[in-house]
Design goal:
Keywords: Membrane, Transmembrane, Transmembrane helix. By secondary structure, the chain is mainly α. The protein has 6 helices and no strands.
């Protein structure tokens, strides 16, 4: 199956195209590197290490967040707050979709406590 046939990868690819077409030229190189490195790290974690791709993507994002702006001389862009919010929502959505319904239904009291107690 082609990687672009999976709904998540197609959405990331389309988001990357939209950002590239609508953003300032200073954002194109760093965001392309971030999307590419995240996809590559996700693939390595799945195929080589047998871990979820999300872990590799998170590690790539953490590393590049601290390396790219100083290396390229970029200022701290306020757009990164929006991108971080979207990334957090994606992480939470993917984590929620990975839950097993039977395991969740077997522990109603514990899940109620997790939902109520911070």
């Amino acid at each position: 199956m082609s990687p672009l046939r999976e709904p998540g990868r197609l959405g990331v690819a389309l988001l990357g195209v939209v950002i590239v077409l609508t953003s300032a030229p200073a954002l194109v190189l760093p965001l392309g590197l971030i999307f590419g490195a995240g996809t590559l790290a996700g693939w390595v974690f799945v195929k080589v290490l047998g871990q979820p791709a999300l872990v590799g993507m998170l590690l790539a994002g953490l590393i590049l967040r601290n390396v790219l702006p100083p290396a390229l001389g970029l200022p701290d862009l306020r757009a990164s707050y929006v991108i971080r919010g979207v990334a957090l929502a994606t992480i939470m959505l993917r984590a929620g979709l990975g839950l097993e319904v039977e395991a969740v239904a077997a522990q109603p009291l514990r899940l109620s406590l997790l939902a109520i107690v911070p």
